[in-house]
Amino acid sequence: MKSMKPKILLAVLILLTATGQLLFAQTKGVVVDKVSRQPISYVSIYAKTGDKVLGTVTNDKGEFSIDFSFQTLFFSHISYEKTEITKSDLRDSIYLIPTTTLLTEVVVSSRQPKWIKSVLTKIVEQKNKNYQATEKVFSYKYETYTLNDSNGYAFRSNGNLLIPQLKKNAQFKIDAQKNIIKYKDKTAGTDFSNLRRMLYDDFLLNLDNNFIKDNNFSKNSSFSDKNKNIVQLNFSSKKYTDYEGYLVLDTLNKVILEVGRSTGTDFNIKTQTSGMLRNLIASRVGFNYNTWVTKSITKYSKVGQSYYMSDCKYKFYMKTSTKNKKVNSSYFTSMESQLSFDNKTQNSTKEFKIIPKPYYLVVFYTKQMKEAEESLNKVPVSFEKF
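Below the sequence we write its predicted structure tokens.
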């Protein structure tokens, strides 16, 4: 009997080791577009566990790895239908159904059709006449979801939003009447960050002749519409390899009806941050941007005699790292937001607050910036469980 004890002990150790491996085994797979069969990058994947939300994001090849326990996984991306899959139904490949116009490959040609530049130039010339010709108040609905390394967060707001006349340095204003936060406890505050980006980074606000000069354009032959005057153009930056998108144009009325844009790390870092400040932070604390991508889809509708933004979806994904003598870590944040408008306004019960412009890395805030930030953060909120 004595000779059996070591064998029994060894068997127990093997069983415990195998069990431990099963408990901590990672679930791996890839998320794929059901139509094009192409992998989908930066899809938010999360599970609800009690009051907490745990999650991850697919990489640039659509691959994911789950290292937390779950019964149901949620897959979310602004260009696809939200999907939930139970543990028993999970497979190596997850297929998502697209909800937006798909980009075909941009064909860069030195012989770009002359009509494209002509139509775009006319749109630029007439944009102040065709877009936001007058200040107007709309009712709005804003939803945003944030997933990071440690938890999940959701914020929903509706009320009235003042869209200013289309001109330089115009300010948007908001009457946020109903605001709901979903978080594990009541320590979280409001999050209007993506709303600010969608409004002040709106394509039409910044559209000028430099955009026409700095990009290559091609007509998407696979796009079709009942109105033959409506076409889709794909564009890609001549300067940045990670900036591309599409425009849906009404060539007869010389207006843009929809814009899709995708920007990558190189473009975002160089256009949204200060090189001097980046170098200072990198040298002092070892902070770096590893990945920074955004995707947006904006639609415009005619109200009266002018066009206004009617719907916008926005995706923000950032992965950063800090590496120095004391810290060696990485951190990700994935945000998905939607903003929609209705021509019927709600009863305004409060004064409109200024929506401050989005700021990334800045040396200091002015007094006016601070006051606008503080005022927007003080809107009344209620809390719900995620």
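The helical segments are 4-24, 114-130, 193-200, 203-206, 209-214, 265-272, 275-285, 367-377.
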